């Protein structure tokens, strides 16, 4: 079984030895005695000591904690042996108390595949809601991934399920029942009757498939309302393999004279920072002198970067990674739909656009993930940064990877303080009694955005009968989770 805990992602700045700083050095690369059985813990400590955003706040990671981290250091080796299980060592000995998102994996191959949206999945994307006054939980379908097992079964957005393999879902068993080792399970479906969730007799069996890749461009349409042409894009993940397709859609929007944009990020938990920059450029513009973000790292690495003159800012783009000209709508206003499932790169788009565009956020407060991290592996000559071109250099004794938080992204105004989430301008919960069909003009959140564009919002009441308040969702159990990463880091030579 592959083990994962919380996190986000961002392969990042490569530090090399030609940069001189007496107070900053790469941890030594000598493995401890293999007989001690702590190669993984040694990798974790040295990588965290180098990169971790809160390195100076964790006593165990202090530069003075272990002056000698070589093979012969008894104190260091004893510390590494304090937890026999690497995951427990990472969680208990190395994490800062306020860190909600750093995580580890016991298999870097599975983890890095997930960055391309490739996972083992049955295609069912859902939220889980606790029944008030009870420990029971039910699920509701948010959407179905195309060409998946679920897409071939009689299950759709808005459907309710209450049990798995005949066992009622609770807040203590849903993880093992829905996200355990079994690839196949049977759902007992349900209905909402007089505001209560009631099981019915329908059962649906779903099977997870290896290598399912989700196209994050779930839906794109042009809606005509009077003199307005409104682009509507349901975007479910910032996956850079689909950047060209995304740009082509904005080309279609542009050539058809789209005047307004509704960007639906309700079920988008994050992904590539570079894709977030490209999408924002497609919305706002391609002036490569306009700052989109500025990254900030731990204090000792920040000093090295600043002393070296490294530009930590990222700018709006005029071309994709493949050199295609960006199709930009050059908008001064955009409507963005959000839920608590909107995280990391989704929030980055909102925050990065705010200094330039009137962002009308509709829906719920976002998750509040303003930090970034990187995929680190036991490749010590590359400062632990994962590179697909260097897999042969990764220690054969260690397949583990870690995803520690490395810093925070500020927007052009210097704002990054949204750990409590980004609050919508127009609050509107999704309604479990009327979740609607994505793209249908009567789907409540889309309808609310369209009414704002048309100026008819005061004439329509948007009453929510049973608000969807998920305690978690299925994406949080994928390796990618709500991660944020970049694939083209600046390099100090």
TrEMBL record:
<dbReference type="InterPro" id="IPR001478">
    <property type="entry name" value="PDZ"/>
</dbReference>
<dbReference type="GO" id="GO:0006508">
    <property type="term" value="P:proteolysis"/>
</dbReference>
<feature type="domain" description="PDZ">
    <location>
        <begin position="108"/>
        <end position="176"/>
    </location>
</feature>
<dbReference type="InterPro" id="IPR041613">
    <property type="entry name" value="Pept_S41_N"/>
</dbReference>
<dbReference type="Pfam" id="PF03572">
    <property type="entry name" value="Peptidase_S41"/>
</dbReference>
<dbReference type="InterPro" id="IPR036034">
    <property type="entry name" value="PDZ_sf"/>
</dbReference>
<dbReference type="Pfam" id="PF18294">
    <property type="entry name" value="Pept_S41_N"/>
</dbReference>
<dbReference type="InterPro" id="IPR029045">
    <property type="entry name" value="ClpP/crotonase-like_dom_sf"/>
</dbReference>
<protein>
    <submittedName>
        <fullName>Carboxyl-terminal protease</fullName>
    </submittedName>
</protein>
<dbReference type="GO" id="GO:0008236">
    <property type="term" value="F:serine-type peptidase activity"/>
</dbReference>
<dbReference type="GO" id="GO:0004175">
    <property type="term" value="F:endopeptidase activity"/>
</dbReference>
<feature type="signal peptide">
    <location>
        <begin position="1"/>
        <end position="21"/>
    </location>
</feature>
<dbReference type="GO" id="GO:0030288">
    <property type="term" value="C:outer membrane-bounded periplasmic space"/>
</dbReference>
<keyword id="KW-0732">Signal</keyword>
<dbReference type="InterPro" id="IPR005151">
    <property type="entry name" value="Tail-specific_protease"/>
</dbReference>
<keyword id="KW-0378">Hydrolase</keyword>
<keyword id="KW-0645">Protease</keyword>
<dbReference type="GO" id="GO:0007165">
    <property type="term" value="P:signal transduction"/>
</dbReference>
